[in-house]
Amino acid sequence: MFLRHLEPRTGRTTAEVVKFALWPIAIMTVLHRVLIKAVNGFRTDDFAPVYRAALAFLNHRPVYTANFNWVDPHYLYPPSGTLLIAPIALIDPERSRWLFILVNAAAVIIAGYLMLKMFNLALDSIAAPILLFAMFASETVTNTLVFTNINGLVLLGEVAFMYLLLRKKDAWSGVALGLTFAVKPVLWPLLLLPLVSKQWKVFVTALGIPLILTAIAWPLSADPMDFVRRTAPYLAESRDYFNSAIVGNGAYYGLPDLLVLGLRALFGVMVLVSLWLLYRYYRDDQLFFVTTASGVLLTASFLLGSLGQMYYSMMMFPLLMSVVLRNSVMRNWPAWLAVYGFMSYDSWLSVRWPAAGRAAEYMKTTLGWSLLLIVIFAVLLGRYLIAKRENRLDGGIDPAFLIEERTKVAVG
Questions:
Q1: Which helix (H) or strand (E) covers residue 148, if one does?
Q2: What contacts 24+ positions apart, CB below 8 Å, involve 236-242?
Q3: What tens digit of pLDDT does each residue of 242-262 get?
Q4: Minimal CA–CA distance to 369: which of 318, 275, 269, 301?
Q5: How far is residue 48's CA from residue 54's CA, in Å, rounded to a whole number?
Q6: What are the b/e assignments for 314-335, b being 16+ CB within 10 Å?
Q7: pTM for the structure as a whole
Q8: Are 125 and 169 in contact (CB under 8 A)?
């Protein structure tokens, strides 16, 4: 029986051979990241303060007691998030951590499945094992599992939001987004998507759910006002460690404030131009618009905001997946050089060249996010200028060969 799988009786295409070769590699990568890397842990532990906070909440003890003078992971979730994560403290810390790892890994896999469906790709397509391997080989998924934080569930909320938004299931789309807001409002820029498409029901549930959960959690918490007095101001600050935002690296390297402000303004202009071009010429191409605009919005929030950590890059998976679209802005090598910067698990710390290696290691995420925004801006602006020169702006700014193909299909 086993030998029959080594030499199949029927011929297979190259794509089929590659697909069958990739599945065991992808599956073993998942198992390695979950059972070995994540269970072993490394360097920092995002789960410990969350578990302590959940245990304190269940016992009606103060939750917001972190000393922000230390660089150890702090508990930063609002009361609504504390309410949602409280059940993790019903079992012992070790088994709770293992369960949290499994839940986040499952969330990443489900998010990948929804992305395949979103792009009309089947599980038996070559895209499925490529996506699974790429996700779990990345720094963002690996360290989310190793550090044991909630980003996998946030990714699932993001993808579910997009999937349901594209299918006009507005209220449920808002539910997916609202649950992430209740714990970690990192996806707040995505509210621009239903705003421009006038899908107002999204806002009812997206904003209503965290408000309702906060109303429930507030009287159950021993110190809810300390989140407002102590934690919220800390969240608004820019720190100079574990921060790949422009302000974070600017503070770490001692750059002049005016230079940091100028860089943020420059990239801010590029982001606004990119978003305007997407809205003006692509809002009716909904899958392209939602995945591309979400990538621009989230990358901008990480790069230009007060805090951007490398593993936030997980939220850009829908943008990267858009490479399968014929008009994708990701179909060029500079875009994937950028992706290497913020997705690769490679460490550039060097024993032989310590200063250069440290700079490459600390700057690779910032440079990757920056290059991605530059590439998207350049692709969209280039398309606009070419279409304007050729007097075809009324037909959109997609490359001429794509417009010709669509015309032939429509006529045929």
A1: none
A2: 236/306, 237/306, 238/306, 238/307, 239/307, 241/71, 242/71, 242/309
A3: 788 999 999 888 899 999 999
A4: 301
A5: 10
A6: bbbbbbbbbbbbebbbbeeeeb
A7: 0.94
A8: no
Write phi, then psi, for 42 (nearest 5 degrees): -170, 135
Cβ atoms of 118 and 287 closer than 8 Å: yes
Are residues 290 and 165 in contact, defined by beta-carbon separation less than 8 angstroms?
yes
Rg over alpha carbons for the chain, rounded to the nearest Å, is: 23
CA dihedral over 57, 62, 68, 69, signed as positive or negative: negative
CA distances to 281, 387, 390, 401 from 404, rounded to whole Å, are 17, 13, 14, 5
Please report, for residues 23, 135, 136, 391, the alpha-carbon distance to residue 142 in angstroms, rounded to integers and kept in the order given: 18, 8, 6, 48
Q: Which of 145, 128, 143, 171 is CA-nearest to residue 35?
A: 145
Q: What is the pLDDT of residues 143-192, one digit of tens each?
A: 999 999 999 999 999 999 999 999 999 999 999 999 999 999 999 999 99
Bridge partners of 44, per DSSP, are 42
